[in-house]
Amino acid sequence: MEAFDTAVIGAGMIGSASARHLTRSTDGPNVLIGPSEIQADQSGVFGAWFDEGRITRVFDFSDTWRKLAIASIERYRDIEKDSGISFYHEVGYLTVVRSDYENMEKFHETAELVRQAGFACEHLEKEGLREKFPYLQFPPDAQAYHQPDSSGYINPRELVRAEQELARKAGFSILEDVVEEVLKEEGEYLLLLRSGKLVRCRRMIIANGAYLNISNLLQNLEPCPRFDVSLTGQTVAYIRVSEPDANRLEKMPTLITRYRTGELDGSYILPPIKYPDGNHYIKLGHNDAFERTLLSSSDVEDWYRSGEGDPQAVVELAQLVQQLLPDVGQLSVTGGCCVTAKTPGKLGPILTKVCDSVVVAAGGNGYAAKSCDEIGRIAATLF
Questions:
Q1: Which tens digits make up the pLDDT trace of 150-180?
Q2: What whole-number distance in Å separates Cα of residue 23 and Cα of residue 26?
Q3: Residue 253 near residue 120, CB atoms below 8 Å
């Protein structure tokens, strides 16, 4: 049986960041435990980081998420340099509303807060949008804020790899396995792994994402904590485009629209990204419309294994791209699935010390990818 000082359970974005930051505050030995992406089909444990693109931005209505993002984004280049792994694409960010947007005052207030924090944030209306982004077609009453730097998108697969590489270099052990159960024994924790291995540790950071309440990791802790987290299934659309179109739109900013289009109540859109199959895809998803409520681990596994999401959502998303980018040919349209773990009001993640030896870091709300390094840093300091 291997023994460690601290075990980080969950090897996704938050868990991997927690492991990297723990190397600065403890001599260990420490271990990061979580299945790899290649093990997902067999393990039935899926990660929101199994993708090539996630939006990163400072512009956020929530003070909490904005501050978490700023701290994380400021470290991206250092993580890339120290690990030798690139993951950050600084193409900028554009958030777009129409004249009837109900939170217009908050929209303008947030832009001012972004500027006060030292970031460029330009207000654009019809003519400005057309001049700066002639390839994008917005409604005539659209207005937007453009954040040209310290924003764009990250590759979550490569970010996880970079965080883990730095943790490994600093002495962290990494086990590609699933923790099935946690037992308290003589003041320490005994972790039962799916492979049959046993791991003993003195402290734990639990960062297992959507599986926080639906796994068996909390049931033997006294008192058994329960967290107010709801799970929703999200549909993603992948629009395959030609290489010439991808090259032409290489510097297109990431987008969030905050207005209705068909059955959509808003969307997020990334520029064409080259995926492992060698093709370029525009990835986009919806806001609250088309969400699916998920209640159990089998619900989550079934949603991921379905692989295609809500067919009507995919149709609506493809139509949105056709409206926004009318000169871009859609070679194919496919759907995908993701799961979001939401805290009340989506105001912030769960970052809490359950007891002297257990920290929980979860509840990404669909915002944690860009902010995971700071979430992980805070988790590592809570002991």
A1: 999 999 999 999 999 999 999 999 999 999 9
A2: 6
A3: no
